[in-house]
Amino acid sequence: MILRKLLLLTSWGLSTFLAVAGFWQVGLWKVTIAVLVCAIAWIFVRRKFSSVCLAGSVTFAAAGLILGAAAPFMFFYAGFSLATWDLNSMDLSLSRNSPDQKSNLYQSRRLFALGFSLGAGFLIIFLGHLLRFQIPFIVMVLLLVLVFFSLNRIMRLLQQKD
Question: Secondary structure of the chain: what % helix, strand, coil (to 5)?
């Protein structure tokens, strides 16, 4: 439980820091204030409106890309916002149940899946900024289908180990 809360606060703090740094870097201080209001909303309304907060965070990340904020800041901001939402959802679902062996297994599997997804996504972002080459659109679509299929197979293998 302490690990779950620590990861939730860490992902929330990192997403807030990255958004503020990205918008402050290009001089958009009014948007920075709006991001801080959204970050504070994550704390106070996390039980009922976490999906609204996630939508706001992703919208701010997209707006940051359009307004010229550094792309790595905005991509990582969106990724950590998604992690915050997922950890918040897991926290809400586990808080309704009494802790037992099965919920501990569920928590560890879900944290592993979240870490794997974030790691793979951030690796793809990093490689995308490092390597520059043209890929035909159909090849990109096929690669995305392959990634989704692979993640689905990995999740099924993890569920079969129960």
Answer: 85, 0, 15
Q: Positive or negative CA dihedral for 151, 15, 62, 134?
A: negative
Backbone angles phi, psi at 112, to 5 degrees: -65, -45
* 3-state DSSP assignment of residue 47: coil
Q: What is the Cα–Cα distance from 130 to 61, expressed in whole angstroms?
A: 21
CA-to-CA distance for 28 and 67, rounded, in angstroms? 9
Structure tokens at 13: 């703090």
CA 47, CA 130: separation in Å to the nearest integer?
Answer: 39
Q: Give the C-alpha separation, 131 to 83, whole Å.
A: 26
**Tell me: the pLDDT tens digits for 66-94?**
888 888 888 888 888 888 888 887 777 77
Look up residue 76 and give its amino acid.
F
Smallest Cα–Cα separation from 64: which of 94, 36, 38, 35? 35
- Report the alpha-carbon distance of residue 160 to residue 162 in Å, rounded: 5
pLDDT digits (tens, 9 = 90+) for 17-28: 888 888 888 888
